[in-house]
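Q: What does the assembly look like in three dimensions?
Context provided by user:
Components: three
Sequences:
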Amino acid sequence: MKTQTILKEHILPNSFYERDDVVSIAKELLGKYVYTNFEGVWTGGKIVETEAYCGATDKACHAHLNRRTNRTQTMFLKGGVAYVYLCYGIHHLFNIVTNKQDHADAVLVRGIEPTVGIEKMMERRNMKKLQNRITAGPGCLTQALGMTTDLDKSSVSGPDIWLTDYDLVNSKKATDVEESQVIKGPRVGIDYAGEDAKLPWRFSIKDNKWVSPAK
DNA sequence: TGGCTGATGCGA
DNA sequence: CGCATCAGCCAA
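A: Here is the predicted structure of the complete assembly.
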């Protein structure tokens, strides 16, 4: 059966994204699978590291206090679309918009465990041997998955980006990550956010080697 | 450890 | 307009 046909059965419902608790969504995204499909080439893997950003109250969020600019308007869209932007002039960062329209919440995906299209991802990363850093870190994984700002505002339920609970390699449904296997900690690279920099809104899977090295 | 890199959003 | 600021990464 075609990959696309299989994945359609396992797309996360939009009700998953439209909830108002972005921190819970960030945690629940651990263990889910994200894939991209460009020109028929599938790449992707299991989400192992995320961070929550909340537009209404969170100083670390681009849409802090519901600030609307050209860039942040994506976050005000209804949950279930991608927010992709350029960071430090070099790296594309992939976020998943959550909550209802006009509520600017998003989850930054920081690391995945590569499973599908590893050869293609190595090629995009200009890597001759497979190394952990292929998809560890938000800038790395977008490069490996071939994501750019072109995908800003596009759906995470296909046809380019596919957020699912399905493991293509083992042909089975994803299992929820046990609470005891979830590491919580402060978010990375947001010292400017004052007290909010301490919020434990970064989630990762315990002892997973594909989590980014940032502490 | 520092250099790279460019969009973004602010104030003049 | 100019200019400081960034939700990173990598070689060394």
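Follow-up: The beta strands of chain A are 33-38, 41-54, 82-87, 91-98, 105-116, 161-164, 166-167, 172-173, 182-185, 202-205.
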